[in-house]
Amino acid sequence: MQINLKIFRYLPDSGNKPHYDKYVMEVNPTDRVLDVLEQVRADNDPSLAYRRSCAHGVCGSDAMQINGHNALACKVLVKDLDSTDITIEPLRGLNVLRDLIVDMEPFFDHFRSVQPYFINDSELPADGKERLQSPTERERFDDTTKCILCAACTSSCPSFWADGKYVGPAAIVNAHRFIYDSRDTAATERLEIMNEATGVWRCRTIFNCTEACPRDIKITKAIAEVKKAIITGKLEN
Ligand code: SF4
Ligand code: F3S
Ligand code: FES
User: What class does CATH assign to 105-232?
Assistant: First the structure.
């Protein structure tokens, strides 16, 4: 099939303004958008820049806007776009470093700010081996363990676009993952971070994040649970 492809191009400090390169290409309907980008690099322009690593929806490095929606280029098939016009642009709300590559540092700063790691300084149980958890306790935070830090959610959130200080849905998802882990002891501290001016209250329940997540995490639900825990002072099962 033939597609009309438009790709955002920009190299800050080059003196050139942001622009779109256009290509008319023959592709297979079952090609992924990532395959199309690889084809452009191989046949037309090796200077085209984008991130990719696993090519199988695991590493989270190739999130970008495809026809206006955030997605992983390696998970979107050309035939599923329902259009032969395909526009590829970088994620919104993060500065472009080059072409489709954005500066992820502010995103990871927000992620780090919620203490996204296991905290428990108490003695290990008598057998000295592991802290046990029931299947039900593990299930409580299973959904938010699935995050691959692709930034598709945070960079689709209008509250984040309006103010990049908002910690953003990805950071809240990762806070949720540890707040609801029965073995962790720092839930109160994380809820205090979530209650700050840059925390969960900036969320206006717009749902773009949930729609954008390639891992189908119920992000808005997780945010609502964190808000409720702050208000009630309790973690509900
Ligand atoms: Fe990506 Fe989903 Fe994690 Fe957001 S919550 S960073 S969209 S995997
Ligand atoms: Fe933004 Fe998602 Fe809330 S899009 S406003 S974080 S529900
Ligand atoms: Fe790893 Fe797409 S390249 S998720």
Answer: mainly alpha
Residue 171: CB within 6 Å of ligand 1?
no
Q: Do residues 62 and 49 lie in contact, with contact meaning Cβ atoms separated by under 8 Å?
A: no
CATH topology agreement for domains 2-102 and 105-232: no
Q: Which atom of ligand 3 is nearest to the CA of 58?
A: 4
Q: How far is the CA of 201 from the centre of ligand 3 (A)?
A: 31
According to CATH, what is the number of the domain 2-102?
Answer: 3.10.20.30
Q: How far is Cα 188 from Cα 212, in angstroms, rounded to an integer? A: 29
pLDDT (tens, 9 = 90+) of the chain, 237 residues, equals 999 999 999 998 888 999 999 999 999 999 999 999 999 999 999 999 999 999 999 999 999 999 999 999 999 999 999 899 999 999 999 999 999 999 999 999 999 999 999 999 998 888 778 899 999 999 999 999 999 999 999 999 999 999 999 999 999 999 999 999 999 999 999 999 999 999 999 999 999 999 999 999 999 999 999 999 999 988 887
Domain boundaries, the chain: 2-102, 105-232
Pocket probe for ligand 2: among 69, 198, 206, the residue whose CB has the most ligand atoms within 8 Å is 206
Distance (Å, whole) CA 129 – CA 132: 9
